[in-house]
Write a structure and sequence with these properties.
alpha/beta; 41% helix; five-stranded parallel β-sheet; globular; 153 residues; disordered C terminus; 6 helices
Length: 153
C-alpha cells in the first residue's frame, strides 16, 4: 500500500499516541508522533503533513495555541482530540482551526472514519476549511462546498 501522506500525531499520553499511530498507520498514513506542542509546531513546519491530530490538553502549551501556530505553517486539516465535549470546547476548537474533533475516549473506528473524511482514500487532495468558510485543497485550488461533496462521494 502506498502512503496517503504524512500524518502528524501530537499527543502527550504514550498509550493514546501509540493507539492513534497504529490506527492511522494501518489506514495508510506515514505517521510521525510527538509528545509536546512545541515539538508539534516544529514538525508541522518540517514534515508538510496531510493531516494533524492534536490533543488539546498538552502539558507545555494549550492545544488551541498549538493549532494557531500550526495554521501559520500548514494547511493540513486539524483533528482535535478533546477530553470532554461541551459547547465551549466545540466553539474553541472550531475557532482554533479544527476541521473535526473527537472526544476521548473514542473508538478506533471513529478515528479511522474521521481521518478518511478529512483525507479521502485515493484522493490527491485533503480538504481543509479556510477561515473565510470556503474549501481549499492542499494543491491551492479553491473548491466550493458542493464541489467538495462531489469529490468525496
Amino acid at each position: 500500500m502506498s502512503s496517503r501522506g504524512v500524518c502528524l500525531v501530537i499527543e502527550d499520553d504514550w498509550d493514546i499516541r501509540d493507539l492513534i499511530s497504529a490506527i492511522l498507520t494501518r489506514s495508510g498514513f506515514e505517521v510521525h508522533a510527538v509528545a509536546s506542542g512545541a515539538e508539534g509546531v516544529v514538525a508541522a513546519g518540517n514534515l508538510d503533513p496531510v493531516l494533524v491530530t492534536l490533543d488539546i490538553g498538552l502539558p507545555d502549551m494549550s492545544g488551541h495555541e498549538v493549532a494557531r501556530q500550526i495554521r501559520r505553517v500548514s494547511k493540513a486539516p486539524l483533528l482535535f482530540l478533546i477530553g470532554r465535549a461541551g459547547t465551549d470546547d466545540e466553539v474553541a476548537s472550531i475557532s482554533s482551526g479544527a476541521a473535526a474533533y473527537l472526544t476521548k475516549p473514542f473508538q478506533p473506528q471513529q478515528l479511522q472514519e474521521t481521518a478518511d473524511q478529512l483525507c479521502p482514500v485515493n484522493r490527491a487532495v485533503c480538504y481543509v476549511s479556510d477561515p473565510k468558510g470556503s474549501e481549499q485543497g492542499r494543491s491551492g485550488e479553491m473548491l466550493w462546498p458542493s464541489a467538495v461533496a462531489e469529490f468525496v462521494e
